Amino acid sequence: MSQESNSAPATAKGLEGVIALETAICDIDGVKGTLIYGGYDIQDLAKNCTFEEVTYLLWNGVLPDAIQLAHLHRSLTAERILPPMVKEILEMTPEDADPMAVLRTGVSALALFDGEADDASTEANYRKAVRLTAQIPTILAHFDRRRNGLDPVPPLTDSSISHNFLTMLHGKEPGDAAEKTFDACLVLHAEHGLNASTFAGRVIGATLSDMYSAITGAIGGLKGPLHGGANIEVMKMLAQIDQEGADPKAWVLNKLQNKERIMGFGHRVYKTLDPRAAILQEMLAKLSSERGNTKWYDMSMVISETVLKEKGLHANVDFFSASVYGTLEIPSDLFTPIFGMSRISGWTAHLMEQWHDNRLIRPRAAYIGPRGLKTGR
Amino acid sequence: MSQESNSAPATAKGLEGVIALETAICDIDGVKGTLIYGGYDIQDLAKNCTFEEVTYLLWNGVLPDAIQLAHLHRSLTAERILPPMVKEILEMTPEDADPMAVLRTGVSALALFDGEADDASTEANYRKAVRLTAQIPTILAHFDRRRNGLDPVPPLTDSSISHNFLTMLHGKEPGDAAEKTFDACLVLHAEHGLNASTFAGRVIGATLSDMYSAITGAIGGLKGPLHGGANIEVMKMLAQIDQEGADPKAWVLNKLQNKERIMGFGHRVYKTLDPRAAILQEMLAKLSSERGNTKWYDMSMVISETVLKEKGLHANVDFFSASVYGTLEIPSDLFTPIFGMSRISGWTAHLMEQWHDNRLIRPRAAYIGPRGLKTGR
Q: Containing H/E element for B364?
């Protein structure tokens, strides 16, 4: 047990409980069930602020005034168009490719056409954060249109990220409740402390590598089923109940009787309520009514009430976001990429914080292998 | 200070001194100046084993017998050709792109054409490790030929990674000393414990994301100047002395007098000798003689002797690898990509070890921002 030093501290497997750094971006209190971004409660933000305002908050530590918000809005809308060669890469991508692998490759390729990619100044990094936030929705919508044999819809030059993305994806403007609910989903997923993708991004950024490298790595981390994929599993369950034409309550009770796990309940961090779930539940009701499709809403309500009654477990954000995206007719393999399209604001905020007072992030490993072997040659 | 728990351990900034996991791949003793891969001393391996043998050792924990080595060799040579669309991406890449950004994008794109990309079985991961090790040299050589207006050289179907890469890069076969020295460079850079790029890869892999995602992130980490770029700085120094036509000894003494740092001396981990440096110094002598170009060797010897005498600091592996690559006429912006072409063996070994007994890697952050703010809307 030498590994770079003579001291031998205990191994903190998975770094559980170890505090790696200080942050002013976000705090989670799992016991109280609260989540704050830059001092503001997530419920306040999701009800009263747009994703653009929240993005500004995460990047700057304060909410924008009207002029600052208008300026950010102009920068974001001006940067939505992809470089021609990144479009070309999307055109060449096989239609059955995993959208997260497409996003990872597209973001990595954006760097090749950004003259500021390796400019480490604070100003250039802020501009790159704007560009990434603006371009990720275009990458996703372009790929989804193409794989469905449809022409990509050019980005709108004057509308919110939510409105623009839904329009590019579906080729028609979303309704008010759709735009507002999807915007709230972006707010709710924008940031969540030092999760594995954000941590991966900060480890990469701490080598003084560039923002594209760090975000490419973060996307790779989010792709993992232990991280970004929970609402896909929820949607699979809902779709299965729907296809079987089963009674949702009976279906859930049967699963529970067989000691099987119901996806979307409880949370590793939140011991009581996931504060994001209640907001989405409320919005899902309005959205379903606007869309004239209450199938997923009705099913979700029955399932969440049954699991709460039987197991005392509350539905989490993933449980309701599945129904929201399902009601918005978004394909389930875009759920995690959309998570990334939102989390880009938190990832880039963490990188800018990291670089403000950088330090290499590098724990040690304890060697448990053989010693003293010789090739004998 | 709540962040997911009520306890409040001390912050371990940069995770310095924290043991994150156990490994049987590599051990470094910075005080004694020793480095072992799987129990074997690095000097024994660099003198007596090929990069292919060392790669097998890192992946399997034992050196291969003749049959196992022949099998690995066949797999590696069979996988060298790039999917047509990855070639197409390289053709479209601007010639002034950073080769590390090109490598990151190329590796990410390889996943789009690998039907096993999301197959998490041990066997599929081993095959992906083989593919990545085989294809990275082709990506680098293809891009370098193209940016120089030259036709790419198709990969050889029966030669070592070292011989094949130098042939693809230069369009002619390397001499014996060139092949052997470059092969030793690959061995010396293949693995180095839980450095920042390897750690980033393991953090990504620990979400159960795929090998391409983890390696793409690791490449992004290696790209950082605090990690992979030291020998480029050494080469800049050598080239500057050469261009100025300065006397190397006088140049170094002048720098030291002005309290300026000489690149390539001392090491964060190795407190005495970097065990990799001595091997390279010896090989550089032979290589320079074979190439009939002792310019970088002569300069390196004068500088290393001067710094040792004046400051008591030994030259490290980066110091001599710069002269080796310079003597091999490799452009300096390929030094870090070549580091990655070697480290791919260690990165993939760490991923396979991680997945053998996986656990999410997720430390905590301490919140130091404001609380209790309200939007007032």
A: strand B364-367
